[in-house]
Carbohydrate esterase family 4 protein
Amino acid sequence: MVLHLLTVLFALLVTSHAARSRGPDVYTLCKRGFSYTWDDGPWTMHEEIVETFDTQGAKTSFYINGNNWSCIYDEENVQTLRTTFENGHQIASHTYLQWSHASLTELNDTQIDYEIKRLDEALIKILGIRPRFFRPPYGNFNQHIIDYIRGKHNKTIIMWSNDSGDATGGSARDSWNFYTRFAREEPDYTGLTLSHEVSDAGVEAMRNGTVQALVEAGVELLTTADCLGLEPYDYVGDYGERDETWNCDAEWTPSVSSR
Ligand SMILES: [Zn+2]
């Protein structure tokens, strides 16, 4: 009985320590700076976004898909993503096939594994990285999904503090007003904002100077990892070389390199 009680106490101590050390379930806000993020690429406007942030000496983060608006293995995407990575912007996971389902809450664990591992494998091949950061499509999740993705896949779940609305009917002017308001009224706000690299409205607002307005207001634009003080990747190695598996149409089974 005493032994049993000690075992339970020990288990509780270990559990509470683990709960503390692994951080919150879901991050929605930065701890310092401001993270201006882009979902649903890579697509045709990706490179322009990187150039704009580079020009302003700012950093951004992309929560990408494997095969949504385009296949991640297309040579243009491979080259563009390598530039993004080399220029110090963050690459994070937003599932392999976002379009094929309404949300993770409608998938079973095997299907969730597919969504995460197939993109992880692509990023290990293309960039030599496995991302720690994951944003669920549509921001839909439940406690099981949080526990499963953190426990099995070692991902940190990132949402957002403020949505620019560029994927839900907002205009370029709306996105412009959204970002420049932080610059004018709340330059010290540690925002973690949502835009979409496949949204004409979100990209048009950027062309009209949202990044410059924030930088000129003294807002420090950081990757999500830097604004949270966390590591962006749990594996960093060399770039791979293209072979027949660099293909979104092929049959796929997990390789040993993915988690
Ligand atoms: Zn999305």
Summary: The two ends are 40 Å apart (CA to CA). The pocket of zinc ion is lined by residues 39-40, 94, 98, 137 (CB under 6 Å).
